């Protein structure tokens, strides 16, 4: 018999819908909310409601914004000749934290995954191709995770973009800092070798 009060169970159920959050994690989060003051709980609810109602996709890059254009697309200081294609909006934040990239972005909102029923129509491929129609963009960087789906998506997009005369590159990937060569797989070592640079 379950002795959890219905409102608490509902809260646990909702937190459990988050990707990567199991029953234990959802329960921990629910009890954390219950330990908040009324003011803090209301602020959390308002933040969730505000994000859900005020944020939408940028007209150009498809990243989330509360204006017509996101800050990157609206900036006159960005290099408009390079577009970095990423899977998710939070990938943009990861690149921006490095402060090393000054081009534009395009968010796909997923990867090709035929087994899960995700094709090019479910992604923002059409919007990406529309951005390449004039001669402004000279390079498109494929910055997807090196998974089967990421590789398939990068190859699919490269086949569509290369005929337009635009350079298509991918992120160099290889050994993380502190990794041991003996434990690296062949693909990682190959990428580390082929993506090597001068010292």
TrEMBL record:
UniProt-recorded name of the protein: Recombination protein RecR
C4-type ZnF: 58-73
Keywords: DNA damage, DNA recombination, DNA repair, Metal-binding, Zinc, Zinc-finger
Annotated gene: recR
SMART domains referenced in this protein's UniProt entry, alphabetically: TOPRIM
InterPro entries: DNA_Rcmb_RecR, Rcmb_RecR, Rcmb_RecR_Znf, TOPRIM_dom, TOPRIM_RecR
Similarity field: Belongs to the RecR family.
GO BP term (any one): DNA recombination
Function of the protein: May play a role in DNA repair. It seems to be involved in an RecBC-independent recombinational process of DNA repair. It may act with RecF and RecO.
Annotated PROSITE patterns: RECR (PS01300), TOPRIM (PS50880)
Listed NCBIfam families: recR
GO molecular function: DNA binding; zinc ion binding
Domain Toprim: 81-176
CDD domains from the UniProt entry: TOPRIM_recR
Gene3D superfamilies assigned to the protein according to its UniProt record, in alphabetical order: 3.30.60.80, 3.40.1360.10, 6.10.250.240, RecR Domain 1
Upper taxonomic lineage: Bacteria, Bacillati, Bacillota, Clostridia, Eubacteriales
